[in-house]
Amino acid sequence: MGRIMEWAGRPNHLGGLPRKTVIMAVGTFAKAVASLLNSTSVHNADTLLNLVRSRPPGVPLITVSNHMSTLDDPVMWGFKGFPTCNAELQRWVLAAEDICFKNPVLSYFFRLGKCIPITRGGGIYQEHMNEALDRLSNGDWLHTFPEGKVCQEDEPIRRLKWGTASLIARAPITPIVLPIFHLGLQKVMPENYIFGKRPLIPLWKKDIKIIVGEPIEFDIPKLKQTALLASKDLLPFQKYGWPPFGEMDEVAQRCLYIDISERIQSVLERLRVLGRKPKL
């Protein structure tokens, strides 16, 4: 399968005006929901702002967070002081194809908004994951929700999907990985509001809390060696037909992606516990 409407996501499409228009409109909406209609507090915001604005040239950034509502992105970027309306600085984000790319109009809109369609259940080697790798190769910022779906219950972070881990491992330059935990957006856009459906518009007068962690360091060459050794002791399991990754077969890749995912999950869980405290 080819890349859905990739041309619309290019910065030079029609001189960049459509992208700037959409980013400006969506950013204004996010600012209104996060900073006017609701109250948003951010812990350690400077770390995120510095990495978005002035990380080393060519070094990609991956932010990872829990997923509490359909409004997480873009509203979590709508806090005061964040360049939400800047099309150049704004993130790329992995978005569910069956929700955001159901028809040409939605596909065009979300492409202009720097969204990359992902087919749920399509595996970590689907074509649009290669597109995400291209963005990282350019030193861009990519946001992912590695839990894979919305969860509005106050529960520990679930086992993460391996897609984000595979991007971290396969990127030509190892990305800076920044964990973020947020809560409150499940009250702004609850899944079961009236008759088991979401409200038509975001709710207001809610408290949103965003906890930005510190970058997680990954020594990918060392982790690869560890995975190669660990793979020799694994029992046979169902394989997905993954292509080789350097000297790593599918068994070794599985060990590598599980290791990276568990490290991210552990950090997100610590941020979740921190976020439940009345004051940070």
From TrEMBL:
The UniProt entry, under InterPro entries, shows: Plipid/glycerol_acylTrfase, Tafazzin
* Gene Ontology MF terms: O-acyltransferase activity
Which keywords annotate this record? Acyltransferase, Lipid metabolism, Membrane, Transferase
Tell me the Pfam families matching this sequence: Acyltransferase
- What GO biological process terms does the UniProt entry carry, in alphabetical order? phospholipid metabolic process
Instruction: Enumerate the spans annotated as Phospholipid/glycerol acyltransferase domain.
Output: 61-185
Indicate whether Mitochondrion appears among the record's keywords. no
Q: Which GO terms describe its cellular component?
A: membrane
Q: Where in the cell is it found?
A: Membrane
Q: Which domain of life is it from?
A: Eukaryota
Chain segments annotated as transmembrane = none
The main place the protein resides is: membrane
Q: Which PANTHER family is this protein grouped with?
A: N-ACYLPHOSPHATIDYLETHANOLAMINE SYNTHASE, TAZ PROTEIN TAFAZZIN
Q: Which family does it belong to?
A: Belongs to the taffazin family.
Q: What is this protein called?
A: Tafazzin family protein
This protein's species is: Lactuca virosa
